[in-house]
């Protein structure tokens, strides 16, 4: 199965990328336990910032951006992680999903997550990310993961699980959706389709 991870982290090292890697590991472990072979591809959006901006002004994706969009839309599952800027997802994160066709993620299992400096922004998952992927008709897993600075290494409290437990639960939910999804139908090869149409023609 093919799992793609989209990280909108801007720094190196990035806590956003770290959270993305932990979520991918949890989903991979659950899928392997279920008997699946998993390949993971990570997309760092900061490397594509110029390509995404050019797409907006030209209307065309560069070959590099087109390849990434193809990877994301053909995946069996997607993990999307953004840092919080001004109480919402980053502009780079939103811009990337703006250049994807509105129906390209229909039915795709998606795990959403975000990082921020304070836990007070944790509702960004429910008021920004979940509506975005609902609009794109993706199948968003019930558990979304937010990691504030104090969450790293935290064991949680009497009301909430710690970050490791949330990561495992969210990864397990994504793996279950991926495993239950019917195999994606590959689009017909344009060349093959053209050859078939030509073969159907009869010249007298």
A few lines on this structure:
With 204 residues, this protein is of the alpha/beta class.
List the helices and strands and how they pair.
Elements: E1 2-7, H1 15-33, E2 39-44, H2 49-58, H3 63-73, E3 77-85, E4 88-89, H4 91-98, E5 109-116, H5 124-135, E6 139-140, E7 145-148, H6 163-180, H7 190-200
Parallel strand pairs: 1-2, 1-3, 3-5, 5-6, 5-7
Antiparallel strand pairs: 3-4
Helix pairs in contact: 1-6
Write a structural description:
With 204 residues, this protein is of the alpha/beta class. It is built from 7 helices and 7 strands; from the N terminus they run E-H-E-H-H-E-E-H-E-H-E-E-H-H. Strands 1, 2, 3, 4, 5, 6 and 7 form a 7-stranded mixed β-sheet that branches. It is globular and about 50 Å long. The termini are far apart. The mean pLDDT is 89.
List the keywords:
single chain; 204 residues; alpha/beta; seven-stranded mixed beta sheet
Weakly predicted, low-confidence segments: none
What value does the Rg take, in angstroms? 19 Å
Proportion of residues in extended strands: 15-25%
Order of helices and strands: EHEHHEEHEHEEHH
Q: Give a short account of the largest sheet.
A: 7 strands, mixed
Number of helices: 7
Number of strands: 7
Shape: globular
Mean pLDDT: 89
Cα end-to-end separation:
48 Å
The helix-and-strand class reads: alpha/beta
Helix content: 40-55%
């Amino acid at each position: 199965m093919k799992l793609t991870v989209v990280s909108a982290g801007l720094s190196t090292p990035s806590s956003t990328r770290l959270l993305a890697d932990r979520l991918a590991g949890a989903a991979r472990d659950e899928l392997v336990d279920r008997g699946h072979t998993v390949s993971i591809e990570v997309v760092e959006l900061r490397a594509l910032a110029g390509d995404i901006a050019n797409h907006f002004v030209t209307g065309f994706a560069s070959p590099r951006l087109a390849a990434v969009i193809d990877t994301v839309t053909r995946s069996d599952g997607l993990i999307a992680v953004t840092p919080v800027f001004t109480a919402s997802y980053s502009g780079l994160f939103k811009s990337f999903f703006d250049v994807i066709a509105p129906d390209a993620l229909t039915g795709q299992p998606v795990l959403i997550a975000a990082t921020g400096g304070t836990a007070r922004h944790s509702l960004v998952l429910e008021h920004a990310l979940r509506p975005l992927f609902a609009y794109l008709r993706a199948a968003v897993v019930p558990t979304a993961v937010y990691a504030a600075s104090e969450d790293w290494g935290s064991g949680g409290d009497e009301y909430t699980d710690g970050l490791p437990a949330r990561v495992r639960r969210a990864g397990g939910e994504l793996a279950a959706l991926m495993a239950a999804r019917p195999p994606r139908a590959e689009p017909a090869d344009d060349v093959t389709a053209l050859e078939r149409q030509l073969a159907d023609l009869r010249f007298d």
